[in-house]
Design a protein that fits this description.
The chain is mainly alpha-helical. The chain has one domain. The chain has five helices and two strands; from the N terminus they run αββαααα. A two-stranded antiparallel sheet has the order 1-2. Helix 2 runs antiparallel to helix 3 and helix 2 runs antiparallel to helix 5. The longest helix has 65 residues. The chain is rod-shaped and about 85 Å long. The relative contact order is 0.10. The N terminus is likely disordered.
Length: 169
Protein backbone atom coordinates (compact mmCIF):
# COMPACT_ATOMS: atom_id res chain seq x y z
CA UNK A 1 0.00 0.00 0.00
CA UNK A 2 1.37 3.42 -0.93
CA UNK A 3 1.94 6.18 1.57
CA UNK A 4 -0.85 8.26 -0.02
CA UNK A 5 -3.41 5.50 0.51
CA UNK A 6 -2.33 5.18 4.15
CA UNK A 7 -2.43 8.95 4.57
CA UNK A 8 -5.97 9.27 3.18
CA UNK A 9 -7.41 6.27 5.01
CA UNK A 10 -5.79 6.69 8.47
CA UNK A 11 -7.07 9.67 10.46
CA UNK A 12 -4.86 11.15 13.12
CA UNK A 13 -5.53 10.12 16.69
CA UNK A 14 -5.64 12.96 19.18
CA UNK A 15 -6.27 12.89 22.89
CA UNK A 16 -9.04 15.11 24.09
CA UNK A 17 -10.66 15.19 27.49
CA UNK A 18 -9.36 11.75 28.43
CA UNK A 19 -10.64 10.01 25.32
CA UNK A 20 -9.17 9.29 21.92
CA UNK A 21 -11.04 11.11 19.14
CA UNK A 22 -10.60 11.04 15.40
CA UNK A 23 -9.69 14.33 13.80
CA UNK A 24 -8.75 15.22 10.26
CA UNK A 25 -5.35 16.80 9.99
CA UNK A 26 -5.11 20.52 9.45
CA UNK A 27 -3.25 19.80 6.23
CA UNK A 28 -6.37 18.16 4.81
CA UNK A 29 -8.45 21.21 5.70
CA UNK A 30 -5.91 23.43 3.95
CA UNK A 31 -6.03 21.18 0.88
CA UNK A 32 -9.83 21.36 0.79
CA UNK A 33 -9.61 25.15 1.07
CA UNK A 34 -7.01 25.19 -1.71
CA UNK A 35 -9.29 23.06 -3.94
CA UNK A 36 -12.23 25.40 -3.30
CA UNK A 37 -10.00 28.39 -4.01
CA UNK A 38 -8.68 26.84 -7.23
CA UNK A 39 -12.22 25.98 -8.32
CA UNK A 40 -13.37 29.53 -7.67
CA UNK A 41 -10.37 30.98 -9.53
CA UNK A 42 -11.15 28.75 -12.52
CA UNK A 43 -14.82 29.82 -12.42
CA UNK A 44 -13.91 33.52 -12.23
CA UNK A 45 -11.47 33.10 -15.14
CA UNK A 46 -14.21 31.44 -17.25
CA UNK A 47 -16.61 34.27 -16.41
CA UNK A 48 -13.96 36.85 -17.27
CA UNK A 49 -13.33 35.19 -20.62
CA UNK A 50 -17.05 35.21 -21.43
CA UNK A 51 -17.45 38.84 -20.37
CA UNK A 52 -14.42 39.93 -22.38
CA UNK A 53 -15.79 38.12 -25.47
CA UNK A 54 -19.13 39.92 -25.09
CA UNK A 55 -17.35 43.24 -24.64
CA UNK A 56 -15.22 42.57 -27.73
CA UNK A 57 -18.41 41.84 -29.69
CA UNK A 58 -19.88 45.16 -28.60
CA UNK A 59 -16.61 46.92 -29.50
CA UNK A 60 -16.72 45.41 -33.03
CA UNK A 61 -20.36 46.46 -33.37
CA UNK A 62 -19.54 49.99 -32.27
CA UNK A 63 -16.74 50.25 -34.85
CA UNK A 64 -19.12 49.10 -37.58
CA UNK A 65 -21.77 51.53 -36.38
CA UNK A 66 -19.28 54.42 -36.44
CA UNK A 67 -18.09 53.54 -39.98
CA UNK A 68 -21.66 53.27 -41.30
CA UNK A 69 -22.55 56.56 -39.62
CA UNK A 70 -19.62 58.42 -41.16
CA UNK A 71 -20.31 56.90 -44.60
CA UNK A 72 -24.01 57.78 -44.58
CA UNK A 73 -23.66 61.20 -42.93
CA UNK A 74 -22.35 63.03 -46.05
CA UNK A 75 -24.95 61.34 -48.25
CA UNK A 76 -27.81 62.34 -45.96
CA UNK A 77 -26.33 65.84 -45.54
CA UNK A 78 -26.24 66.30 -49.34
CA UNK A 79 -29.85 65.16 -49.63
CA UNK A 80 -30.92 67.57 -46.88
CA UNK A 81 -29.04 70.46 -48.54
CA UNK A 82 -30.70 69.59 -51.87
CA UNK A 83 -34.10 69.58 -50.14
CA UNK A 84 -33.34 72.95 -48.47
CA UNK A 85 -32.32 74.52 -51.80
CA UNK A 86 -35.46 73.17 -53.52
CA UNK A 87 -37.74 74.47 -50.76
CA UNK A 88 -35.83 77.79 -50.61
CA UNK A 89 -36.24 78.33 -54.37
CA UNK A 90 -39.98 77.62 -54.24
CA UNK A 91 -40.87 79.46 -51.02
CA UNK A 92 -38.32 81.70 -49.33
CA UNK A 93 -40.00 81.78 -45.90
CA UNK A 94 -40.49 78.03 -45.76
CA UNK A 95 -36.92 77.50 -47.03
CA UNK A 96 -35.53 79.68 -44.24
CA UNK A 97 -37.60 77.74 -41.70
CA UNK A 98 -36.31 74.38 -43.01
CA UNK A 99 -32.73 75.73 -43.07
CA UNK A 100 -33.10 76.94 -39.46
CA UNK A 101 -34.44 73.57 -38.31
CA UNK A 102 -31.64 71.72 -40.11
CA UNK A 103 -29.08 74.04 -38.50
CA UNK A 104 -30.60 73.49 -35.03
CA UNK A 105 -30.63 69.70 -35.42
CA UNK A 106 -27.08 69.75 -36.78
CA UNK A 107 -25.95 71.83 -33.80
CA UNK A 108 -27.55 69.35 -31.38
CA UNK A 109 -25.89 66.41 -33.12
CA UNK A 110 -22.54 68.21 -33.03
CA UNK A 111 -22.90 68.99 -29.30
CA UNK A 112 -23.80 65.39 -28.47
CA UNK A 113 -20.87 64.16 -30.54
CA UNK A 114 -18.46 66.42 -28.64
CA UNK A 115 -19.79 65.27 -25.26
CA UNK A 116 -17.27 63.58 -22.98
CA UNK A 117 -19.76 60.85 -22.04
CA UNK A 118 -20.72 59.88 -25.60
CA UNK A 119 -19.33 56.48 -26.53
CA UNK A 120 -20.16 54.48 -29.64
CA UNK A 121 -20.00 51.23 -27.68
CA UNK A 122 -22.86 52.44 -25.47
CA UNK A 123 -24.98 53.14 -28.54
CA UNK A 124 -24.17 49.70 -29.98
CA UNK A 125 -24.97 47.86 -26.74
CA UNK A 126 -28.08 49.66 -25.55
CA UNK A 127 -31.11 47.42 -25.04
CA UNK A 128 -34.18 49.10 -26.49
CA UNK A 129 -37.67 48.62 -25.15
CA UNK A 130 -40.78 49.35 -27.22
CA UNK A 131 -41.72 51.93 -24.57
CA UNK A 132 -38.26 53.30 -23.73
CA UNK A 133 -38.61 56.38 -25.95
CA UNK A 134 -41.98 57.41 -24.51
CA UNK A 135 -41.40 59.31 -21.26
CA UNK A 136 -45.09 59.21 -20.35
CA UNK A 137 -45.01 55.43 -19.85
CA UNK A 138 -43.24 54.30 -16.68
CA UNK A 139 -40.58 51.80 -17.57
CA UNK A 140 -37.62 50.18 -15.89
CA UNK A 141 -35.62 50.99 -19.02
CA UNK A 142 -35.53 54.73 -18.35
CA UNK A 143 -32.13 55.60 -16.93
CA UNK A 144 -30.83 52.10 -17.61
CA UNK A 145 -27.17 51.86 -18.41
CA UNK A 146 -25.87 50.18 -21.53
CA UNK A 147 -24.72 46.57 -21.51
CA UNK A 148 -21.16 47.72 -22.19
CA UNK A 149 -21.13 49.71 -18.94
CA UNK A 150 -22.56 46.77 -17.02
CA UNK A 151 -19.98 44.41 -18.51
CA UNK A 152 -17.17 46.83 -17.63
CA UNK A 153 -18.36 46.82 -14.01
CA UNK A 154 -18.64 43.01 -13.98
CA UNK A 155 -15.12 42.64 -15.39
CA UNK A 156 -13.79 45.00 -12.71
CA UNK A 157 -15.55 42.96 -10.00
CA UNK A 158 -14.13 39.67 -11.32
CA UNK A 159 -10.61 41.11 -11.57
CA UNK A 160 -10.87 42.41 -8.00
CA UNK A 161 -12.00 38.97 -6.84
CA UNK A 162 -9.04 37.38 -8.61
CA UNK A 163 -6.71 39.78 -6.79
CA UNK A 164 -8.36 38.80 -3.49
CA UNK A 165 -7.88 35.12 -4.33
CA UNK A 166 -4.31 35.82 -5.47
CA UNK A 167 -1.31 33.69 -4.45
CA UNK A 168 -1.76 32.24 -1.00
CA UNK A 169 1.15 32.43 1.39
Amino acid sequence: MSWAAVYWTQPLLRKGEGALIYAWPDVLAKRMHQMDRDTEIAQVNRELETLRERYATYARSSRRLRVVFWIWLPIVALLIVALMVKVLLQDTLMGMFVAGMVAAISLLIWLVGRSQTFRWIDIASVQWSPFSLDASIPSVYHGRRSDAQLIEDQIAERELRLKELGPES
